[in-house]
Design a protein that fits this description.
The chain has one domain: Tetracycline Repressor, domain 2 (Orthogonal Bundle). It is mostly helical and 197 residues long. The chain is elongated, with a radius of gyration of 18 Å. Helices cover 69% and strands 0% of the residues. Helix 1 packs across helix 3.
Length: 197
């Protein structure tokens, strides 16, 4: 096997591990990411883990970054599809972030919405990667606001999105959880989105 073929196979394996870990961390939290389970889901042996990562925390950092990039790109795509050139991007962001789909599938959604309450208790490298995801979410919200908006408003709205999603997930993917999200969507749109429409 050529050196480039080995590198390509290694890169593919690495990507499968990160992909499996990114779903696991959003589904089960930081503590729920076990190396053996991630490797099994990636279709690899447990023993091969350290050929890819120095530690479990190194895996978590990459998994958080990957999860954030994937969910951000999907959110941007969905907002663009809803708003076109003239739509209210903030309203679309609120409605998509607090959607029944996001409630039902944390493993495919925002890493901040899945992990915010656990982030402060992680090791420094994982906490730093998590903080970057929070900052990116706040910047994503800020991008939907007019230039003259209060600089702190994006953080307030991002906090409301994350908090309401987490509260709804406490109820679960059921009528009560969906009702909580619907109430939050209505309230946040009424409070904020009309100002930028």
């Amino acid at each position: 096997m050529s050196t480039s073929a080995k590198a390509s196979k290694r890169e593919q394996s690495h990507h499968r591990i990160v992909e499996a870990a990114s779903r696991a961390v959003r589904r089960h939290g930081y503590a729920g990411v076990g190396v053996a389970e991630v490797m099994k889901e990636a279709g690899l042996t447990h023993g091969g883990f350290y050929a890819h990562f120095d530690s479990r925390d190194a895996l978590l950092v990459e998994a958080i970054e990957h999860a954030g990039a994937i969910s951000s790109a999907l959110l941007d795509e969905r907002i663009a599809a809803r708003t076109g050139d003239a739509g209210n991007a903030l309203q679309a962001l609120i409605e998509l972030y607090l959607s029944d789909e996001h409630l039902a599938h944390p493993e495919d959604g925002c890493v901040v919405g899945a992990l915010a309450s656990e982030m402060p208790r992680q090791e420094e490298s994982v906490r730093a990667a998590s903080a970057q995801r929070v900052d990116r979410l706040v910047r994503r919200v800020a991008a939907t606001l007019p230039g003259d908006a209060d600089p702190g408003l994006a953080g307030v709205i991002a906090g409301a999105l994350v908090g309401n999603l987490q509260l709804a997930r406490i109820h679960g993917d059921n009528a009560e959880g969906r009702a909580a999200l619907a109430a939050a969507r209505r309230s946040l749109v009424a409070l904020f989105a009309f100002r930028v429409g």
